[in-house]
Amino acid sequence: MHNFLIYSVLGLSAGAIYAVAAGGLVLTYxxxxxxxxxxxxxxxxxxxxYWQFTYxxxxxxxxxxxxxxxxxxxxxxxxxxxxILRGLEQTTxxxxxxxxxxxxxxxxxxxxxxxxxxxxxxFPAFFNGDKFTIVGAxxxxxxxxxxxxxxxxxxxxxxxxxxxRVGTDMRAVVDNRDLLVxxxxxxxxxxxxxxxxxxxxxxxxGILIAPTLQLSVLPLTLLIVNAYAAAIMGRLxxxxxxxxxxxVLGLAESYGVGYLSNRGDFLAGIRxxxxxxxxxxxxxxxxxxxxxxxxxxxxxxxFPSPPVRRSAMYAAAFVVLAFVVGPHLSVANMFxxxxxxxxxxxxxxxxxxxxxxxxxxxxQMSFAGIGAxxxxxxxxxxxxxxxxxxxxxxxxxxxxxxxxxxxLRGIYLALSxxxxxxxxxxxxxxxxxxxxxxxxxxxxGIYSLQVPRVQMxxxxxxxxxxxxxxxxxxxxxxxxxxxxxxxxxYGRVLLxxxxxxxxxxxxxxxxxxxxxxxxxxxxxxAGLGGALYGGLQTAVPADTFSFFQTLPVLLxxxxxxxxxxxxxxxxxxxxxxxxxxxxxxxxxxxxIAVAPGLAGIGLVRNPxxxxxxxxxxxxxxxxxxxxxxxxxxxAGDEAFEVxxxxxxxxxxxxxxxxxxxxxxxxxxxxx
Amino acid sequence: MTxxxxxxxxxxxxxxxGGLVALQGIDLAVEPGEVLGLIGPNGxxxxxxxxxxxxxxxxxxxxxxxxxxxxxxxxxxxxxxLGLGRTxxxxxxxxxxxxxxxxxVAAEICRRWARSQHAPEVIADTLVERVGLGHLKFERADALxxxxxxxxxxxxxxxxxPSVLLLDEPxxxxxxxxxxxxxALLRELAGEGLSVVLVDHNANLVMSISHRVAxxxxxxxxxxxxxxxxxxxxxxxxxxxxxxxxxx
Lengths: 671, 248
Description:
Helix content of chain B: 25-40%
Low-confidence stretches of chain A: 635-643
Mean pLDDT of chain A: 85
Number of helices of chain A: 26
Radius of gyration of chain B: 17 Å
Strand content of chain B: 15-25%
Oligomer: heterodimer
Distance between the termini of chain A: 93 Å
Largest interface: A-B, 32 and 42 residues
Order of helices and strands of chain B: EEEHEEHEHHHHEHEHEEHH
CATH class of the domain at 1-83 and 163-172 and 197-231 in chain B: Alpha Beta
Low-confidence stretches of chain B: none
């Protein structure tokens, strides 16, 4: 009973902190329609800033609190909103998610840059952890303050949103910005204000939780998962349910730790997984989303359908290049190139799923990890059958992960995949082994796992140079397969489902089967990539396949252009370049760590990605050359170059239009 | 209200959104080869009824039968496989695919069960020509004008070889010439045995090609009858704020 009281107090105070963070999340979501994946990262950055003022520079704690919570955090939130997020109104939900994930990634890189993790930074609780006793249970002043903050935030937000003019404006701005202007509101000011508040709440939660979690970047950033779970219980819109959810979560976590952590079995390490599993269950319990059609926007996305023969030529050229260049690379450069190509295979796996089918995922490196584990278990001698098994096992797991995805869309889907990957990398992958029905399948453990390199009778891919040839070969084959899919019946179905699930269903398409199949395919490719990536590294630690490793791959693939194989290639080149730069000039390594995030933020300006820009530039160049060749000698043509928009034509004129025009003018078919 | 031959039967359909009654006591039966016009002022519940029939919106009460099979609890894909096709008032074309690919993908989806003897490519090419979009075959669907996109939706829904076709305002955005062409096409399809339920604000089109016209008002069925009787019905004229329906 005594223990129960202690666990309850711990749980309530943790729940209170989650409530503060979740309150900020719901506030920004309901007022901007953007789900802030970076909320935890903002809280982390805030806690570090507070530490810097109070312990780094020795300012009095109350003064630092006022400066951090009242000035820096709100300014930061408002700056994020007006500088980055305001450009997201006309984009798809996938781009919004990717951009906030990019902010998360950039902030993590930034924090590790400013506060290198190799220095201890003690972060004592408020009032040095002074405590007193209530009904036999010790309660610290810090815990009381946490609970008080939660109550104050709950009341404050309720009054703000329901009773104040600015709160009404906040709720209005998400529905229709223009209408709010007509009614005399100022949407820009209102959005900036809500993000300022959200940022302050994130920072407050970060400062409150830091003494428990210690001041370190990744755990504080992932704290947000707990807030996600609470916010999802309130369906991202209802504050009371969110607060109840946060308390339930805090208690569940506390009891879980209290009663399970001294067991000897695998449940002992369950703590970090508890909120994630609750999140997963809540996501599954959500009512089935109504089938929705397209949003009526003209998408700027780009899904080229290149001829297979030309793609095959590029692919062959790539393998030959790898073969020829290989001997001239230094060991370090060779490893960089190999690593980029292996991760490039994982990036290719995103194209059918995220690009063609429009299903967002944040767990691709988990599938890669499953592939590596399978390879190590099935083919310790390096048999190529291990690669096949890696594909199959990852595909099966992918199909299972897809089950919640069948019911979920957009951010909910992204969240459930994030939940899956965090359960794996924080709880499962770090175990020594998985025991099922007497089988012992070794996992990465706390050190690392040996993953073999492929060996074939007569051919060994043991050397780095052979790895380069193997990786480029597999990359080319997978890339060709993805190009072929785009041109196939299956590719058309995926694109159609992405454009309008409702229309597909009324045409008789079983969305369930289609979604499961594309998840399985994508996971299988990622598993194959993971098996090769594992073999490349040989001794593989668990964090090779963590949530934070998925982010750069996803971000760079989307930045490259997720609708095209060329996009994954561009993303792969960026990955390799970034790594090479940070190796050659070590002083840039911190900047390079932030780079994928910054590149992802750049999507606000160009959701189509680099590949589509390059393609447009090449096409324009070719056309210009053709035109100038044709009109050479006939001066004066320039005068007729009136932009088509001026005369009310908003698309390219095709031959068909000219033919129609000729018919309309009675000229007969164009000659 | 049961008919031995009806392709589509709707019985006692009721839809409530919280306290709002969107549809109540809706009964309808459509025979093979029949064009049934469905008209009513904005907000009468026409699109809601289409969503219920096609399985996108579960009704609060009532039954839907397709070719004699009870489908009230079936999802949209199963209903499509039982012969239901539809278009959408808010365009649902596959924007990043070309016009031909839009129809092709529909023909490919249904290839397994529609038992058509033609290849999907042939079906796609034929239908694109038939609705009059041949000259736009290789345009991306999101580059089409509204009228052409509506015709594309008609072609796409025909690709699954349906026995019942629900058309939600197919003529809005069409020129007079295109509307005439569409009307002729629908009559032709009905002649081949297709049941068509047509919602449109173009009274000329509805009245000229429908065998019967049903009138919805505020979620209830006001009347069902021959076009000439419906036009003469004072309640119908009143439903449109006293403006008599224009005769062709």
